[in-house]
Specification:
- By secondary structure, the protein is α+β, with helices and mostly antiparallel strands.
- The chain has helices at about 85-90, 140-150, 160-165, 170-175, 205-210, 220-225, 280-290, 300-305, 335-345, 350-355, 395-410, 425-440, 455-460, 480-485, 500-510, 520-535, and strands at about 50, 55, 65-70, 95-100, 105, 110-115, 120-125, 185-190, 195-200, 245, 255-260, 275-280, 295-300, 315-325, 360-365, 415-420, 445-450, 470-475, 540-550, 555, 560, 565-570, 575.
- The strands form seven sheets. Strands 13, 14, 15, 16, 17, 18 and 19 form a seven-stranded mixed β-sheet that branches.
- β4 (about 95-100) and β5 form a beta hairpin.
- α9 runs antiparallel to α11 (about 395-410).
């Protein structure tokens, strides 16, 4: 989903604006098949599992039937990196805190917390009635174990930076670098129900990080009993949350969760369960919704025209910034600034949002999307979408000029580039339009689409095995650094391996440097950092995603958030 290199260490004046072989776990066994390519899910009833006695664990009529575009990539809270996995993990796991309907951090496993006067020590007081689905209590030691896993170099969690660079937990950076043992992480189980956390610098939004899955607890005894199978089946995960996973296999096209009767807040949960279906073909998904097999599904493109007047049609801000990442490190043509500027200025973003997506997504011309983070004066960081119009705007004449200069500098008359794109319906449509716009505006350019399953596409981009990549980034917390931190030297999501010493210095200034506690000064320097990214055409921003959805009139109470966990079902209700 997301990664940054730095941390906000000031009191934020605003928040997000978007209106954004078993080891004795559970008793059910997984029965679902796997998916490859664009195979679609089946009807809701196919999400039924089979319990230990061999009886059907069929979906109830009061289950909510949910469409997913992509399969779950991992159910390991310290290894998962994508929004789909985060949503499902959060269905059955609570962290110290959770989000309320407005996206604010409120108690979950932690009933309360104390903060020291210097802002460096949090003491969380855990509730005594929270327990895992195997009957053992949730303790402070479970959080210590989970967090130590997150920074353990042997685990190699992609989200380890959330504890070091973002959370600024004492010794996290040194442990990740192999300089200290994980036991030295600044988190201590004072007793079963008291967790103490030490920070390097004050982090004003630290409690909001606590509902991010990387910070979720893991029971060490259970984890050890699972061996290498942890988080791969219902038997190898534990629940302490609203639901219990009772049907699942890796890459399953359908899986199921049932209400957790032993959840400490079980009276709050009204759904009998969640029945998920992975359907990558949007037309098949809409048909499933229309037949009643789904209670909610995404729609896009021409489908929006068909359903936009339906009272069950809605649009929801998703928070994701979609962009093209050029591989500047290993593709000589893309190392040329004029070529990169030509390509970003040849993109008609409005035609993509208005004619292809049709879901309310907004054309975006900045490295940080709009309606996401508010500054010290309450203004939107990216309200002005024209501030980089000299380097990022739809202008075919300027694009052609940059292109000609770039070709001359390269000594080439023709260039062929590949763009990797997810196998999902909408990204493929967007990539096809990009290909047409580039080839029409930039003479001598040929663009080939390389369609891959999302997991493979992400791996290829992380390994530098790509030329152009169509990708997205969603925010982990409501601050511009969640986007700007990606472009720091050696950040694992800096796919093009771009490096700029001045940029790195600004980010350092705004995290642990002189601007750490200067809200206005920090905000101004973040603008300076964004300008460097845009002037260098490090990315070609495309649009900020808005999901067009069909939601059954039988369903109310689903919470949508642009940050961290995009959909929450704890208060959802389905009537007949």
């Amino acid at each position: 989903m997301k990664k940054t290199k730095a941390v906000l260490a000031i009191l934020m004046a605003g928040t997000m604006m978007l209106g954004l072989a078993g080891c004795g776990g559970n008793s059910s066994s997984a029965t679902q098949g796997t998916t490859t390519g664009t195979e679609t899910g089946s009807a809701a009833g196919d999400a039924a599992g089979t319990d230990a006695a061999g009886t059907d664990a069929a979906a109830s009529a009061s289950d909510m039937n949910v469409m997913l575009e992509t399969p779950v990539e991992s159910l390991d809270p310290q290894q998962a990196t994508d929004g789909t996995s985060f949503e499902v993990i959060a269905d059955y796991t609570d962290g110290l805190m959770q989000m309320d309907a407005d996206g604010q951090a409120v108690p979950a496993i932690a009933e309360s917390y104390d903060l020291s006067d210097d802002g460096l020590t949090y003491t969380f007081h855990l509730r005594t009635d929270a327990k895992w689905s195997n009957g053992t209590p949730v303790t402070a030691a479970d959080f210590v174990f989970g967090w130590q896993r997150a920074v353990d170099p042997d685990v190699a969690s992609e989200y380890a930076y959330m504890l070091s660079d973002i959370g600024q937990i004492k010794n996290a950076a040194e442990i990740i670098a192999g300089e200290k043992d994980k036991s030295e992480l600044g988190v201590i189980a004072v007793d079963d129900n008291t967790l103490q956390v030490e920070l390097n610098v004050p982090v004003s939004y630290f409690t909001s990080l606590m509902y991010f899955p990387t910070f979720y607890p893991v029971n060490e005894e259970f984890f050890t009993s699972c061996g290498d199978t942890f988080a791969t089946s219902p038997e190898t995960v534990l629940s302490n949350g609203a639901f219990v996973l009772d049907s699942y296999q890796p890459a399953a096209t359908a899986f199921h969760l049932t209400k957790n009767a032993d959840y400490y807040d079980t009276d709050r949960v009204k759904l009998s369960g969640l029945s998920y279906q992975v359907i990558q073909d949007s037309q098949q998904a809409l048909m499933s919704y229309q037949t009643g097999a789904l209670d909610t599904t995404l729609v896009n493109g021409e489908q929006v025209d068909q359903v936009k007047d339906d009272p069950e049609f809605t649009t929801v801000g998703a928070g994701y910034l979609w962009y093209v990442s050029p591989n500047m490190n290993s593709v000589p043509e893309l190392a040329n600034l004029n070529i990169r500027l030509a390509m970003t200025m040849a993109i008609d973003r409005d035609s993509i949002t208005a004619d292809v997506l049709k879901d309310g997504s907004a054309s975006t011309y900045t490295a940080v999307p709009m309606q996401f983070a508010a500054g010290p004066d309450g203004s939107d960081f990216s309200e002005d979408q024209t501030k980089f119009s000299d380097v990022c705007v739809y202008d075919t004449e300027k694009a052609a000029d940059y292109w000609a200069k770039g070709l001359e500098e390269l000594g080439e008359s023709e260039i062929t580039l590949d763009i990797v794109v997810d196998a999902d319906d909408a990204p493929q449509k967007v990539a096809q339009v990009l290909k047409e716009q580039w080839e029409t505006t930039l003479p001598g350019l040929t663009v080939n689409l390389v369609v891959e399953p999302k997991k493979q596409r992400v791996e290829d981009m992380q390994n530098g095995n790509f030329q152009l990549g169509l990708t997205r980034w969603g925010p982990d917390y409501a601050d511009p650094m969640t986007y700007l931190g990606m472009w720091v030297t050696d950040n694992s999501n800096n796919y093009g391996l771009w490096s700029n010493a001045d940029y790195d210095a600004i980010i350092d200034e705004c995290t642990t440097g002189d601007l750490c506690t200067d809200a206005e000064g920090r905000w101004a320097r973040l603008y300076d950092a964004e300008k460097i990214v845009m002037d260098e055409a490090v990315i070609y921003p495309l649009y900020t995603q808005c999901n067009a959805e069909m939601l059954s009139s039988k369903v109310t109470g689903v919470e949508y958030h642009p940050v961290a966990i995009n959909r929450v079902y704890k208060d959802a209700v389905k009537t007949e």
